[in-house]
Amino acid sequence: MQHRSWLRLKLALLLAAGLELACGDSSGSSATAGDSESGSATETATATASSSASGSASETASAGPGGDSEGQDSVGCQDCDGECVDLQTDPDHCGACGMSCGEQLCAGGSCVDTCPDGATDCDGACVDLDADPENCGECGLECDGLCVGGVCSCDAPLTTCDGDCVDLQNDADHCGACGAACAGEEACEAGACVCPAELEVCDGVCTNLKKDEQHCGACDSACLPDEQCNGGSCK
């Protein structure tokens, strides 16, 4: 009888120990799962915040200072109300569109009382006469090409004539040399003034022998005062 009671007590103790072990494993598993879910949520939130911050930084960098994404069309030229201006020197748009200097001058994008050394006041703009193509050598002298050392310079084969880049080989106003203009209906070919094929040179002038009363049919053939030259004949 005592032996059976001892067995029953031993079975009860073993059952209680098993239940306690099972409950402990279940609690540990739940805690581990909770920790895993909490860690995943934290990582997701961190990644989302990082991505958002990165996107905002990229947008700010693209927009530039002040968040304005509109930039300059080209170096030294800013579109202000459809006008190309130099924000570094324009007294009406000094440093920014619409920023007027009033009675002051504009130099380096800032309004100043006097131009810095090496710059000259040209209508309120402090410019370098040695390099400014709109004020080359003196205020108001514009170049078609570059301004080098205060002199307008053009890319070959063009030549600078009165600030313009011209081709001396075919420019009727500068044929062969600056200022050498062709007369009348002459054209400039290979740097020389010539008459078109249908005209003849009479007394140094291109003449239409078919209708010129002083040179009708030939350079030395003039019509009478009451005659007209028609088709190279006086009638």
Offer a few descriptive terms.
235 residues, alpha+beta
3D structure, described in words:
- The protein has one helix and 16 strands.
- It is of the alpha+beta class and about 240 residues long.
- It has a domain of about 40 residues.
- The strands form eight sheets. The protein has a two-stranded antiparallel ribbon with strand order 1-2.
- The radius of gyration is 46 Å and the shape is elongated.
- The protein starts with a helix and ends with a strand.
How would you summarize what this structure contains?
With 235 residues, this protein is α+β, with helices and mostly antiparallel strands. The protein is built from one helix and 16 strands. It has a domain at 198-235.
What is the gyration radius calculated from CA atoms?
Answer: 46 Å
Q: Main sheet: which strands, in order across? A: 1-2
Task: Enumerate how many helices there are, as a single number.
Answer: 1
Could you tell me the mean pLDDT? 76
SSE run: HEEEEEEEEEEEEEEEE
Strand content: 15-25%
The coarse overall form would be elongated
Query: What portion of residues is helical?
Result: 25-40%
Distance between termini? 167 Å
SS content category? alpha+beta
**Biggest β-sheet description:** 2 strands, antiparallel
Q: Which helices and strands appear, and what pairs or packs with what?
A:
Blueprint lengths: L1 H62 L14 E3 L2 E3 L19 E3 L2 E3 L7 E3 L2 E3 L18 E3 L2 E3 L5 E3 L2 E3 L20 E3 L2 E3 L5 E3 L2 E3 L21 E2 L2 E2 L1
Antiparallel strand pairs: 1-2, 3-4, 5-6, 7-8, 9-10, 11-12, 13-14, 15-16
